[in-house]
Every structure is written in structure tokens, then in C-alpha cells.
Design a protein that fits this description.
The chain has 814 residues and is of the alpha/beta class. The chain has 30 helices and 30 strands. The protein has 4 domains: 225 residues, Acetylglutamate kinase-like (Carbamate kinase); 153 residues, 2-Layer Sandwich (VC0802-like); 145 residues, NAD(P)-binding Rossmann-like Domain (Rossmann fold, 3-Layer(aba) Sandwich); 182 residues, Dihydrodipicolinate Reductase, domain 2 (2-Layer Sandwich), CATH 3.30.360. An 8-stranded mixed β-sheet has the order 3-5-2-1-8-10-11-9, with helices on both faces. It has a 7-stranded mixed β-sheet with strand order 21-20-19-18-22-23-24, sandwiched between helices. A 6-stranded antiparallel β-sheet has the order 13-14-12-15-17-16. A hairpin with a 5-residue loop joins strand 13 and strand 14. The structure holds adenosine-5'-diphosphate, aspartic acid (ASP) and magnesium ion.
């Protein structure tokens, strides 16, 4: 014999009820089956909402009732072809009773727990009747038994406790005399000893099935629902969640107690006592394996089996210096809550006894506060303890697994990954069995926390990186292209899932927490909402995704001004923009401090040498204990391009123009030609080497003329280049006459830095530097004579994008 329970969705439409009947066809052939059914999906909530309208004296309850009526009549209409008049009449009469009850509630505008139970019982009574009659009409040997005649409870309406002695004896004697191959029972509903209707708590049909299964000592309890088993975590919140094949009873108890709604928590106990396995299956996909809950699960299974969450939690904190040693303190506290019928979900107590934290359902918080403050009125007035502190808007997340105790470091992994993602933990509890570690966090962080933990414990170390990119000009576009090309490779080889979630240019911005399309992003962005820097920041915060990274691919000071806000929210920053690192030293130091404090990367490799690993190399030298003594470098791809082309055949003006047209200069070429850009770069290298300096401290001997420097627009600048051509020709000829080449050099030496145009003799490492290349020579304690040299293309959209890409990978490997 088997007991099968079908939940609300499983009996939520005629189509699904037909699926249920198909499943029963197989199970019951040659076997007896007891079938427990929920109300039609959503009906219990609808009944409650309709009654609430009536309580509120809102006439709309009549329309709401009609909705409930039609759901049932439509199902009958679709399930039964003919001979249905009797059934429709019976159901209509039941619905009339329901309507009268609702009218009564409207009249007295009040609904007691007792009335609520009476009201809700209609849901299961109707669904079980309709299903039983359908099966009978299709020729199945079916009986309908009202479980109120079997399950006896106390009078605790809406959440009654079962009298197992009376209940078991009722069930056994009924089934001893029953030969039907299928018996349908309504779930959830029961009766007290004095024949009042009671219910077993929301989700209680699972429990009904377990009670019957245990009383009859059946072979198996099957829970048929709308998902393919108990998932590693709530599948509605974590896309990567997957069904757990096997669980022990204790693991199932912990997961359901901490919010895995697929199984009503009290369900396990009755069948555990009899060692009856529970199988959770999907009515919509019966071929799926589902989850088996039993006592003989394979050894060596995963340490963490599942992660669950309960929302709407309030945390009560009772504290005070006089608490230590107050006799019977905890007893009085717990008794108070028990008298108020308030269920405690979690308890933590500091070993100093100075404070105790209790997690309860948010709806009970007000009651609990009043009752506890009253119990300790005396101690509070004597200032031995403080009035109770209530925090709301919280959730509990729990990591569960039988084998957690034999694996070290689970809690370390749990809390460090949450910490890295800025999930603040209000309280922690670990069961003595070490089967469960739970933490109280803000409800708004639940989705991020579950996704983070799921990734850490179940996703084979795959890490999701969520990018928010501001600035999609040449470099940004190349970066997106590179991500598109490499996405699959990164996932397979580095276990990095790099997703672009937000994009903005100066006009519009778009977001998609499920990742933007890398194919149609341009069209999508054009249709996006109006761009705003604050709006962008707010959305990044609101989406609250794990491993969020803000990328600044602009040259805009306002964008750079927001880095502190990103870092403070544990959002990593990758800056292509040099303004922050070369601006005021205090701001640079602040960013470094925030990055450390919030344990979140602030990277800017592309600020110097585009894609060349200049800063990374410098950092590694320093981290390994080396000291920088001097840096010699050619850091401007644009200036190098200009002076390499400038060989007396073309005018200086034309060459600068060409450099700009080919994308090798900043939008304003004066920033390159004045040496400011190079000065910023050597400043950043000096700072990264540990020297505190500002841009003004850098000696910049310009090779430009006064007229060039004083030009007040880009066009004006270009005309002064034409009028001063002789000056540039002279620079070239002077160098040539000494067999030298012109290079724009940056130097850092003994805490001082300078930039300027130099005549470089043959044989010097800079002499043959080609095209737009950069070269950096680090002289250090370990490299005193032969410097460490980094050389290669130092400008261009593609290499800059790959430098940004390298920063993304650094974050991924962090
Ligand atoms: P039924 O009406 O069949 O009793 P429920 O709605 O009570 O179904 O329970 C199934 C739902 O539980 C799923 O649709 C899913 O949204 C939710 N759920 C929450 N946590 C989990 C989990 N860990 N595994 C599976 N389902 C879960
Ligand atoms: N119909 C009840 C509810 O929605 C019981 C159940 O479905 O398990 O809570
Ligand atoms: Mg349920």
C-alpha cells in the first residue's frame, strides 16, 4: 500500500487533474493506494482574501466569491463530459454554504480562528469530491473519505495538534474494512474531539498524508508537487538550483523547518518513526527522478546538501548588565513566548549571558515585545535589563547537511563568501548536531546570499561576475566583443561566468539582471532609459548581485567621483579612466583604504601602458618585498607614434592629426602633447611604488611652444601647430645631427619625477621603440643594473580592452 499526496498545482486545473489520474492508473494497478489532495491551487489564499474583504466590509467579496465558484465549476465542466448534473448540484450546494458563511462574516465583520478553519475546509472538501467523482465516472474503483472523520485534534484552530492515539485507531479501523483500490482524502482538514472543524496549518496536506502513511505503516509516502524534488535551494530564487537525489530524514526536517516550502515541516516525524521513505515527485514531469528521503543514504555524499531561507523574520534582543545570574531568566522568557503561542525559529545566546537573541515570525513581533516587556517590567524599571529591541525586515538562511560535522571550514566558507558580497550578518546559530548553520540577514540580501552560497557549495566552483559598464566608445565596444568571444572558454576553463548586466553611455542606460544580450546590446542601449550617473549607481545597488563590478571606460571626472560609493557597497571598481588615480592624493588614498576595508578590488591596470601588465608587475615586485629605486619609461603610445613618424617628410601638424584620426590620442590631443597624460601615468607608478605625490610635483618641461600651450580650443591648437612648424623641424634636426631620436620620456628617481622630450642615442633601449609602443624599465633592489623591462603596444582600443579584460579575470581569480 502507498500513500500519495497531490498539492495545489497538481490539482489546479482539469489538465493537471488528468495527469494525476494517469499517475494513479499506474500506481493502483494491483495495489491499494490512499490519495490525499490539497485544495485547487491558490484556492486557500483566495478564500482567505475573500473573507478579509468581507471582514473589511468591502462588497467586492461577492465578486471574489464568484471567482472561486467559477474555478470549480469550470474544472468540473472540463473533466466530465456527461452525467454531471448530480455533481454540479452537489458542488453548487456546497458553494451556497460557502457564500452564506462569507455573508455572515460580512455582517459581523469579524472572523475568528474557528470560522477561518470552517471557511478553509471548503477548499479541500471541494477538490477531493470533484476528483473522486471524476475517477468514479471513469470507472476506477474509488472511494471518498472525509479525513475529518479520521484525524482528531485539539482545539488550537488554524494550527491544531493531532491526537495520534484516536487518529491512528480511526485510520486503521477504516482501512481494515475498506477494499477500494483508490481512496481519496482531503488533506489539511481535521476535527476536534467536540466535532469542530480544525486545520493542520498552512501547507498541512503533506502532514495529513504522513499521518495516514504512518498509521497504516505503508511502503512509501509520495509527495507529488510542481517541482522535481527538494532542490539544493529555492528554485524560484536561484536559477542554478537542482533537485537533491537523496536526503536523510534529519536533513529534510532542517531544510523544511528553515523554509524549503516543498515539504511542510511536521510531515517527516510520523514517517520517520516508522522508517517509511518519502519520495518527492513532479506531477508535471513524472519521469524525473525526484528526491528520496530515507535512512539509508549513500555515504560520502556532499557535506552541504541544501540551503534554505525563511523570510518575514523579526529579531528580538534582550540585553542588560543585570541579566547575568537573574534566576530562571530564560525560563521566564520562553514561557512568556509560549503563553502567547509564539513559535521561536532561532536562538543565540552570548556565553556571557549578557544578551540573548531570538528569531520569530515578524507578525508576532509586536505581541512578543509587549508580553516580554511586561514579564520583565520589574527588572526593566530597575535598569537591570533594557526594554526588548525588535528588528524587522530580516530573513534566516540555513546551510544544511548531515556530513557537515566531518568537514572542516564549512562555516568559514559560508561567512567569508557572504562577507565578500557585503551581506551583513545579524546573528548566527549552529545546531548542536552540526547539521545546520543558520544566519540572520536583511531580507533584501536573501537572493544574493542564496546565489552566493549556492555557487560556493554546489556549482563546481563556478563564479559569476556581474559587470556594470559605463562608457561604450571604442574601448568599451572592443571589450564587449572580447567578452562575447571568450565567454564559453572562460566558463569551461576558468569556471568564470562573466555577464554584462548594466550598460550606459552618456545618453542612455540599460540593465538586465539575467544578463544583457551581447548580440543586440547596441540597439537595446539606444532604446534604454535616460542615463544618469546616480541612477546607474542606485540600480547597481538595488540589483544587489554577487561579485558586482563597476567598470569606468570614460574619461569623465564625475564618473570617477562615484567610486567611493561603489566600493562602500562592496562593488568592485575597474577604472580605465585615469582621473581618480592621478587626482588628489587624499582621494587616491581613500579609494585604496575603501578597497581594503570592504575587501573589494579597485583595479586600474589600463591607466598605464594600456594592456601591458605594468601595474600588476609593479605590485607583485613590491608584494614580494622588492623596492623600486628608479623607473624610466616611454609611456605615451600617441607621442611615440608622433615622433616615430616625424622624419622631416611630413609636417608635425599632419602627423598629430593622423594620430588622432587613428585613435591613438585622447579626444583632446593637447592632453597627450602637453605631457599631462604621461605625467599622470608616472605619477600613478610613483604612487603605486609607495611615494606620495601630486601632479604639481612632477617636473614637466614641455616641448610645445607658448602659442601651442595657450591655445584655447582643439582647432586653435592645430592652427598653432601649423604656424610653429619651424620649431618642430628644429627639434628634429638637432636630434638627427647628434644621431639621436626623439622620445618622450618619463622618469622617477629618488622620490622625484619628471617628464619631457629627450634625444635618445643609438644603443639605448628606447632608441628602437616602434610605432605606438610603450616601454617601462623598473630598477629595483633585485634588478639594480639590468632593469626589468616591459615593452609592447601601449595604445589602441583592442589592447586597452584586453587590459580591462585582464582586470576582470583578476577579480574572478580573487
Ligand atoms: P504544493 O502545493 O504541491 O504543496 P508548495 O507550493 O507547497 O507545493 O511547494 C512547492 C514549492 O516550494 C515550489 O514550487 C517552490 O517554489 C518552493 N520551494 C521552496 N524551496 C524549495 C526547495 N528547496 N526545493 C523545492 N521547492 C522549493
Ligand atoms: N490548501 C492548504 C494550503 O494551501 C493546505 C495544503 O495545500 O497543503 O495551505
Ligand atoms: Mg505544500
Amino acid at each position: 500500500m502507498k500513500v500519495l499526496k497531490f498539492g495545489g498545482t497538481s490539482v489546479g486545473s482539469a489538465k493537471n487533474i488528468n495527469k494525476v489520474i494517469d499517475i494513479l492508473k499506474d500506481v493502483s494497478s494491483g495495489n491499494q493506494a490512499v490519495v490525499v489532495v490539497s485544495a485547487v491551487g491558490g484556492i486557500t489564499d483566495k478564500l482567505l482574501n475573500t473573507a478579509q474583504l468581507a471582514v473589511d466590509k468591502n462588497q467586492d467579496y461577492k465578486e471574489a466569491f464568484k471567482g472561486i465558484k467559477h474555478i470549480h465549476l469550470d474544472i468540473i465542466d472540463e473533466l466530465l463530459d456527461d452525467k454531471k448534473t448530480d455533481i454540479v448540484n452537489f458542488v453548487s450546494e456546497k458553494l451556497n454554504h460557502l457564500e452564506q458563511l462569507l455573508d455572515g462574516i460580512f455582517l459581523i465583520n469579524e472572523m475568528s480562528p474557528k470560522t477561518s478553519d470552517k471557511l478553509l475546509s471548503f477548499g479541500e472538501l471541494l477538490s477531493s469530491y470533484i476528483i473522486a467523482e471524476t475517477m468514479k465516472s471513469r470507472g476506477y474503483d474509488t472511494a471518498l473519505k472525509n479525513s475529518q472523520e479520521l484525524i482528531v485534534t485539539d482545539k488550537n484552530h488554524t494550527n491544531a495538534s493531532v491526537d495520534f492515539k484516536a487518529t491512528n485507531s480511526n485510520i486503521v479501523s477504516y482501512f481494515n474494512n475498506n477494499t477500494n483500490s483508490i481512496t481519496i482524502l482531503p488533506g489539511f482538514i481535521s476535527k476536534s474531539k467536540d466535532n469542530e472543524i480544525t486545520t493542520l496549518g498552512r501547507g498541512g496536506s503533506d502532514y495529513t498524508a504522513a499521518i495516514v502513511a504512518a498509521a497504516l505503516n505503508v511502503d512509501e509516502l509520495q509527495i507529488w508537487t510542481d517541482v522535481s524534488g527538494m532542490f539544493t535551494t529555492n528554485p524560484k530564487l536561484v536559477k542554478q538550483a537542482f533537485p537533491i537525489k537523496e536526503l536523510s530524514y534529519q536533513e529534510a526536517v532542517e531544510l523544511s523547518h528553515f523554509g524549503a516550502k516543498v515539504l511542510y515541516p511536521p510531515t517527516v516525524q510520523p514517517v520517520l518513526d516508522k522508517n517509511i521513505p518519502i519520495i518527492i515527485k513532479n506531477t508535471m514531469a513524472p519521469e524525473d527522478h525526484g528526491t528520496s528521503i530515507n535512512n539509508n543514504i549513500a555515504h560520502g555524499s556532499l557535506a552541504v546538501k541544501g540551503i534554505s531561507n525563511i523570510n518575514d523574520i523579526a529579531l528580538l534582543t534582550l540585553q542588560g548588565n543585570g541579566m547575568v545570574g537573574i534566576p530562571g531568566f530564560s525560563k521566564r522568557l520562553f514561557e512568556t513566548l509560549s503563553q502567547e503561542k509564539i513559535n521561536i525559529v532561532l536562538i543565540t545566546q552570548a556565553s556571557s549571558e549578557h544578551s540573548i537573541c531570538i528569531g520569530i515570525s515578524e507578525k508576532d513581533a509586536e505581541n512578543a515585545k509587549a508580553a516580554i516587556d511586561q514579564t520583565f517590567e520589574n527588572e526593566i524599571s530597575l535598569h537591570k535589563i533594557d526594554p526588548i529591541i525588535v528588528e524587522t525586515g530580516l530573513s534566516i538562511i540555513a546551510v544544511v547537511g548531515d556530513n557537515m560535522k566531518s568537514h572542516q571550514g564549512i562555516s568559514g566558507k559560508m561567512f567569508s563568501s557572504l562577507g565578500k558580497n557585503n551581506v551583513n550578518i545579524r546573528a548566527i546559530a549552529q545546531g548542536a548536531s552540526e547539521r545546520n548553520i543558520s544566519a540572520v540577514i536583511a531580507e533584501r540580501d536573501v537572493k544574493k546570499a542564496l546565489n552566493t552560497l549556492h555557487e560556493v557549495f554546489f556549482e563546481d566552483n563556478t563564479k559569476q561576475i556581474n559587470l556594470f559598464i559605463t562608457g561604450v566608445g571604442n574601448v568599451g565596444e572592443r571589450l564587449i566583443e572580447q567578452i562575447k568571444q571568450q565567454k564559453k572558454y572562460l566558463k569551461e576553463n576558468l569556471k568564470l561566468n562573466v555577464r554584462i548586466v548594466g550598460l550606459s553611455n552618456s545618453r542612455t542606460m540599460i540593465f538586465d539582471s539575467d544578463s544583457l544580450s551581447l548580440k543586440s546590446w547596441k540597439d537595446d542601449l539606444a532604446k534604454g532609459e535616460r542615463a544618469s550617473l546616480e541612477g546607474f549607481l542606485e540600480t547597481v545597488k538595488l540589483l544587489n548581485l554577487r561579485n558586482s563590478v563597476f567598470m569606468d571606460i570614460t574619461a569623465n571626472a564625475d564618473v570617477a567621483a562615484l567610486y567611493p560609493e561603489y566600493l562602500k557597497n562592496s562593488i568592485a571598481v575597474i577604472a580605465c579612466n585615469k582621473i581618480a588615480c592621478s587626482g588628489d592624493i587624499e582621494n587616491y588614498k581613500l579609494l585604496k583604504r575603501l578597497s581594503l576595508k570592504y575587501n573589494v578590488p579597485f583595479l586600474f591596470e589600463t591607466n598605464v601602458g594600456a594592456g601591458l601588465p605594468v601595474i600588476d608587475t609593479l605590485n607583485n615586485l613590491i608584494l614580494s618585498g622588492d623596492k623600486i629605486t628608479s623607473i624610466q619609461a616611454v609611456l605615451s603610445g600617441s607621442l611615440n607614434f608622433v615622433f616615430n613618424k616625424f622624419d622631416g617628410t611630413k609636417s608635425f601638424h599632419d602627423i598629430v592629426k593622423q594620430a588622432q584620426n587613428e585613435g591613438y590620442t585622447e579626444p583632446d590631443p593637447r592632453i597627450d602633447l602637453s605631457g599631462v597624460d604621461v605625467a599622470r601615468k608616472i605619477l600613478i607608478l610613483a604612487r603605486e611604488s609607495g611615494t606620495e605625490m601630486n601632479l604639481e610635483d612632477i617636473n614637466n618641461k614641455s616641448f610645445l611652444t607658448k602659442a601651442n600651450l595657450e591655445s584655447n580650443s582643439v582647432d586653435d591648437f592645430y592652427s598653432t601647430l601649423i604656424s610653429d612648424e619651424v620649431h618642430f623641424q628644429k627639434l628634429y634636426k638637432d636630434a638627427k645631427s647628434k644621431s639621436c631620436r626623439l622620445k618622450y620620456v618619463a622618469e622617477f628617481n629618488n622620490g622625484k619625477a619628471n617628464v619631457g622630450l629627450k634625444e635618445i642615442p643609438e644603443g639605448h633601449p628606447f632608441y628602437n621603440l616602434e610605432g605606438k609602443d610603450n616601454i617601462v624599465m623598473f630598477y629595483t633592489q633585485r634588478y639594480p643594473e639590468q632593469p626589468m623591462i616591459i615593452k609592447g603596444a601601449g595604445a589602441g582600443a583592442d589592447v586597452t580592452a584586453s587590459g580591462l579584460f585582464a582586470d576582470i579575470i583578476r577579480i574572478g581569480n580573487n
